[in-house]
Amino acid sequence: MRKLSRDQALPIVEPHKDRFWRICEESWREWQQLPNIPDYRDRTRANVVNDLMVKIARREFADVHGARFIDVNEKSFSMLLLDDKLLIRFKKFDDRRMPRNYPTQHAQEFNLQMRLPEVPSATRVFCGYRLNPLETEILDVSITCTNGKRPAWYIDLERSEAAVVRLPESGPVNPTDRRPRVRVRRTDVQDDLAL
User: Fold this and answer.
1) pTM of the predicted model, to two decimals?
2) Where are the domains of the chain?
3) Strand, coil or helix: what is 96?
4) Model confidence over 36-65: pLDDT tens digits?
């Protein structure tokens, strides 16, 4: 099967963008609620968050027509197949929106869209998240199609308006209601200098 272009993948991804955001955000939130987080290694975090992403993805796509999960037991990973065209793995991304994983032979072949016996014929993409510099919250969520060691294309998913909490505007409604916060008192010395 030929690899889908970004324009061909967009209509498949678009109806599910809120699901992809929830998968990433909820898994990160669940990770942050675990006890003793500073005691875990980065690899442990990656594994736990990935397992949470797959668990939440199964729930999110349980009743979606054209969505099914492919479990590869020998490699112990799961993928979401959408409309028999996009095969999606869930990962943390680096700054280039590339999946963070050790470059095993299998991972390299997967990223190059090479034929693998246990993987259905479909365009392979990753749904992933990038963290802010302090690694305290999710910066963005994207769908990336790799071409070896770099993205062939990616789709940045907009956060749903329902997920954005709007804060009330600060400041007075009427500009004439403003009162100064500080009063300047002139001292005798300032009065003398003003002359």
Assistant:
1) 0.77
2) 6-160
3) coil
4) 777 788 888 888 999 999 999 999 999 999
